[in-house]
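MODEL INPUT / OUTPUT PAIR
PAIR INDEX: 1
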Amino acid sequence: MGYAADHKQTTRKRIIERAARLFRRYGYQGVGIDDIMAAAGLTRGGFYAHFKSKQDLFAAALSSELELAARLDGRAGAGRSRDAQPAKVLADFYLDPGTRTQALARCPLVSLSTDVARVGAEASAAYTATVRALLAEIERRVANGGADARGRALAALALCVGGAVLAQAIDDESLAGALLAACRERTAVELEHGRAPHRGA
């Protein structure tokens, strides 16, 4: 019996999905081709029908990680509004103390940045494309737009990802909570106001 016309594409997608999940959880060095293929219900022998190397698969996995851009665009999750406030969407995803592990589990910007820097140019290109896609969705929703919209979007993204990364590594819950709260506040400033709130003398 022959395979359906889209069998190879479907299989490739399954491998990428399983690989992305494993890479986010264990890092690039912590996952082997055998692990990935086993997670996809396949044998190692079929790997090279889809990918040139583990690095090639890593780049493909990074390219598939656009969940947060989809959330901002209103495509992920029932009832999400295309006009949802980006500060709230970003803060809920990256900076909520009660669910902060979700960013580590689901966003390569939090879990894989250091790996990308070590793997090479192909991974960096895929990672950069992911950053650009997310940044574009944030920038489109910066309040009042203007010439500084891109700068404000960049700052908000850095606050969210950086805050999430630091909070994951800190073993002091009070400090981690204060860090996340400060990043949330500043993210709202960048995206909704464009200037720091006046705090008095």
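PAIR INDEX: 2
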Amino acid sequence: MEEKKNFFYRNIPNFITGIRLIAAVVMIFLEALTLPFFLVYGICGLSDAIDGFLARKLKLSSKVGSMLDSIADLLFYFVMMMKILPIMAELLEWQHWMIIVIPTILHLLAYLICMIKFKKFSSLHTYANKVLSFLVFAFPFFFIGKNYDLYNTYIYIGGIFALYSSLEINIIHLFAKEYDERNKSIFLINKKTD
């Protein structure tokens, strides 16, 4: 019984990440920008914030948890884009697409570099990447009411963070001798951070 209890305790962050995986799949069947969509979307965002926090706070971080978190993030953002893309296609101009596509390609390149160089599927959770995650998460809310000036400004601000975050992760992967998930910034390489 104690072993079973320990198993559940050790995997609390992974179970929360699992909620994000399930909620992301549920989002596929919901109409974008509706109340049910935003409720499930909010569950995804909340689980993304809580799983990593609990893993660090309870000292339950693991390689499996880190990989599961990366997969859940990819699925969540893929589904989000799948649902929001038709709305974006209607409203965004070509320069907005460049601001979105270039950092996305660079971010995917970081996954590829990590796979080739370190033989693992993971992405660093840098400080810039955390800010970017919040900005990307908030993105659909700016389509409510279709206020062009508001989401136009938001895309440019988000694009700057996206470009910096993507470049930073690529630079860290390219110049690091070994994979270290504690790298939170190019300015903190090889410094231990909690």
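PAIR 2 NOTE: The helical segments are 2-10, 12-27, 35-57, 63-91, 94-118, 127-138, 148-175.
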